[in-house]
Task: inverse folding
């Protein structure tokens, strides 16, 4: 699938249970408690259980489509669980980038290459990565041209961009709400379709079928009720 939608809240619980049972979830490991005692990462806890569905979809996609030694980059990596999950799955060439300097104190920082940088203008060379992940990132300060220009530059031919984001088929206004110093967007179906068209301009094409239908709203935040969407694009040009 190229694009799919979180259908029910039970899918989140099932995904978290799967991550826990496979020993992949960060917060189930005693090292998480030890790290919090030894050093303060920040007030934000690593890994959000609500994002379990997104994380599991991304992890399973990675295992299926990317060899374990291929280079992978997570953008918006501060407090992101996906680099930890991928490390525990056996991926050996992982990087993460975020503007927050605390990203350097993330778990497994001795094995995962974390950089402090704007993910729209990274220090990495062109054609550096086989997979770029973005878990609940692109809806904050969304700038399609800058995003896809940089992702297209960084990806190797045949590489993948995998992202999850807030979503509802009809437009939900978030005007005036800011997070992390940026505006916040709940993507509508027409906006996702426009996102895919914009990505094509930079050689990124849908990888498989698209299903953006939704009938339940498992997520509530800032008095808005919506769901999550997950998207996989491949560099073909």
Result:
């Amino acid at each position: 699938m190229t694009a799919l939608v979180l259908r029910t809240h039970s899918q989140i619980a099932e995904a978290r249970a799967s991550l826990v049972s496979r020993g992949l979830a960060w917060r189930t490991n005693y090292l998480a408690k030890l790290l919090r005692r030894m050093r303060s990462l920040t007030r934000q806890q690593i890994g959000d259980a609500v994002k379990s569905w997104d994380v599991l979809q991304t992890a399973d996609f990675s295992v299926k489509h990317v060899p374990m030694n291929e280079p992978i980059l997570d953008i918006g990596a501060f407090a992101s669980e996906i680099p930890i999950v991928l490390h525990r799955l056996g991926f050996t060439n992982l990087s993460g980038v975020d503007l927050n300097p605390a990203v350097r104190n993330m778990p497994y920082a001795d094995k995962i290459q974390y950089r402090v940088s704007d993910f729209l203008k990274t220090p990495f060379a062109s054609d550096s990565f086989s997979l770029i992940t973005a878990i609940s990132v692109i809806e904050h300060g969304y700038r399609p041209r800058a995003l896809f220009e940089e992702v297209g530059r960084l990806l190797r031919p045949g590489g993948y961009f995998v992202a999850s984001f807030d979503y509802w088929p009809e437009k939900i206004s978030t005007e005036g709400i800011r997070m992390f110093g940026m505006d916040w967007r709940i993507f509508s179906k027409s906006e996702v379709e426009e996102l895919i068209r914009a990505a094509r301009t930079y050689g990124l094409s849908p990888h498989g079928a698209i299903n953006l239908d939704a009938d339940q709203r498992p997520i509530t935040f800032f008095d808005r009720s919506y769901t999550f969407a997950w998207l996989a694009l491949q560099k073909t040009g």
